[in-house]
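pasting for ref
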Amino acid sequence: MLKHFNETWALGIAGYYYHQITGDSGPGARIGLFEGRAVGLGPILTRNVTVDGKQVTTSTRWLHGYYAVNRTRGDSVLLSIGIPIHVGAPQFPRTCGHAAGGSGSH
């Protein structure tokens, strides 16, 4: 959930729920299934800026781990940057001044 203050800034709440649905396996799983669960919640701050005519979005999140079973408990800080990648339609050369689908005669 985000509250937008203007076209540039927004503040909100971010979170996660993690539930490992299958137990650990393989040669490293020597202490059992070790199925993990975790919950985290915290603030998110986003900023939209224009760089070279393109809208760039940044977000910073701090997620506090409130609950953890068979997982490490702690805080996470994440920074995300969204940059649009635009690929325009291909430009085909015109041949003999005829539009596509013409008679083909010269």
